[in-house]
Amino acid sequence: MTEMLNIPGLAVPALLGRGALAQLGERARALGASKGGRVLLVSDPGLVAAGHVDRAAASLRAAGIAVRVFDEAEENPTTVCVDKCVAAAREHRADFLVGLGGGSSMDCAKGCNFLLTNGGRMQDYWGVGKATKTMLPLIAVPTTAGTGSEAQSFALITDEKTHQKMACGDKKALPVLAILDADLTATQPAQVAAATAIDAVAHAVETAGCAKRTDVSRELSRQAWALLNAAFEPALRPPSPPDDADARERMLLGAHLAGAAIENSMLGAAHACANPLTAQFGIPHGAAVGLMLPHVIRFNAHGDGAAGNPYGGLDSVAEQLARRVEVMLEVAALPRQLRDYEVEPSAVGGLAAQAATQWTAQFNPRPVNEENFRTIYERAL
What we know:
It contains 14 helices and ten strands. It is of the alpha/beta class. The protein has two domains: 3-184, Rossmann fold, CATH 3.40.50; 189-380, Dehydroquinate synthase-like - alpha domain (Dehydroquinate synthase-like, alpha domain, Up-down Bundle), CATH 1.20.1090. A seven-stranded mixed beta sheet has the order 1-2-10-7-5-3-4, with helices on both faces. A three-stranded mixed beta sheet has the order 6-9-8. A hairpin with a 6-residue loop joins strand 8 (154-158) and strand 9.
C-alpha cells in the first residue's frame, strides 16, 4: 500500500510504500512527462545489477515515455561525472529527469539539471540561488536510507581538480516528487547501509541543534530521530530472514524527514569535519560524519547557555546522545577512531584548516574555529 505523505515542512511531495517504484511511469506522466516524452534515468552500475534500473525504465516505457539510462553516477560525483551526464541528456534530448540511487545518483541528476537548463559549469552554482532559468522536472528515488537528497534542493558535487565538495543549492532544483520504496533498500550492500544510516542519524542530530533551526525544522528533526533511533538495529540486519521490512521503511522515512529538516535549516561542525576526511583519505561520507559526530556533540555541550547545548538542558543529556551514537557506530561496524583509517596526528593541522572553511561550520550552534577543529580531530584520533 502506498500513500502520499502529509507532513508539515516537506518541500518535496513524497510517495511512501513498498512497491511504489512501479508507479514511476504514471507519476511522471502526471507531473509533465508527456506521452512520447524523453526521460534521462540517472543511476549507477550496482543498481543496474540489482535490477532496479530495468524496473524503473520498464515503468516509464509502459507509460509511453522514451528512456535513456545514464548508469555512470559515481560516489561523491565530480564535475567530470556531471559533464558526462549532461552530454547523455543532450544526446537524448531529455525533457524530464529521474535520479535513482543513493545521494550520489540524485546529486548527479541535480547537477545535470543545473547545467542542462542554465549552462555554464558547476562552479557557477556553488552557493545558493544562482540559477536564473527554470529547470527540468526531476523525480528522485532513493535506494538507501541515508542522504535525504530526495528532500533537498542542494546538489553536492566535488570539483575534479581541487577536490572541494561544492554545495550548489537552488529551490528550482527541488525534485517534483520523491518515491520512497523500502523494497529498494533491501539490496544495498551492508557497508553502504551502515554508512548511509549513520549519515541520516547525523542529519537528524545536527539539524536539531544548528544555528538556523526553526520550529518546523526541529519538529522534522524530532520525528526523524524517533524513527531512526528505534529502527536502527533491526534495519541493519542482513536482508534475509529475519528481514525487518518495516524497520527499513522507518529508516527510509526517517532519512527523508532528516533531509527535509536540512532543507528547512542546515547542518554543523560534524559535516564540516567529515568533508576533508573524505577528500583527503577517501573515507565514505557517512562513516566520516558518524565518527566525528559524538565529538562534536560533546564540544557543543560545553558552550555557554542553552544555545551552546541544543541537545538538552544538561551536559549529561548531550553525553547520553553522544554515547547512543557511539553504540550505533558499533552496531553498524563502523570505526570510531581516525587511526583506523590511518589518519596520523600530523594530518590534524591540515584537516582543521580545511574544516574551518566548510560552509556548514558557520551554522554550528557553538562558534567553531580552526583551533576548535584541531581539538575535535585530536579527540577523534
